[in-house]
Here is the input.
Amino acid sequence: MPAAVPLSWYLVLSAVLFSLGVAGFFFRRNIITMFMSIELMLNAVNLSFVAFSFQLKQVSGNIFAFFVMVVAAAEAAVGLAIILTVFKNRATLNVDRIDSMKY
Amino acid sequence: MNTVFFLVFGLIVVVCAINVVVQRHPISSAISLIGVMGSLAIIYLQLGAEFMAAAQIIVYTGAVMVLFIFVIMLLNAGSEEGGKGPLTVRLLGVPLLLVFLGLLSYLIQRLFSDTGPVRFGDFKGGSPADVGRALFSTYLLPFEITSVLILIAILGAIVLARKELD
Here is the structure.
């Protein structure tokens, strides 16, 4: 077993996480689980940023990941408020039933 | 040592992420997501991003996931109904996703094959002091704009979630 893994393994881990987030977003029908899949994708991107920050020996990647984290927190607050409002009006969390803009 | 560290926590991340996607009850997904984020914080620590690791624990597992679990409990969300997606999604979804992942991994291996090994302690620029210095000099304007964004998000969340007064 090698003493240390190359950087590309971290990037592949990030790609796996991102794909799982995409899978959750496409296959789940619960609006909260879909929202959590989005958070999963954002985390995968953050891992890429931090890995490149390590590789290039620059702090900029960390800063950018920090901004992504801040925006994700703001997005979670607003998104969950929207979910609360949708549930109040439609009494369901299934995205297939929230389709009044579709027809 | 570095390899074992990466493999153990990488495995926890992947298993928890799969669990997020396959669990039918949102609260199980949320708990698994906390596992993903906690293990990612430890991987950040290995990559020399100390401040990011701390922020990951505080902001994600501490604040965002508590918010998620609050909302799940407030809405009393049960297991997902067995509604199946369209036929094309069920048939083509997983193979296409595997193709996407394979292509992505192939590109990563091709583009970054000559990168050096990742050893703990090679990069020490991610400490709170360094991040703070960069944040308040080079990135001052984006930082201030983000604070305004958060203020807007707070107001938006309050306006959206308040009770209508008749």
Q: What stands out?
A: Chain A is about 75% helix and 0% strand. Residues 60-90 of chain A form the longest helix (31 residues).
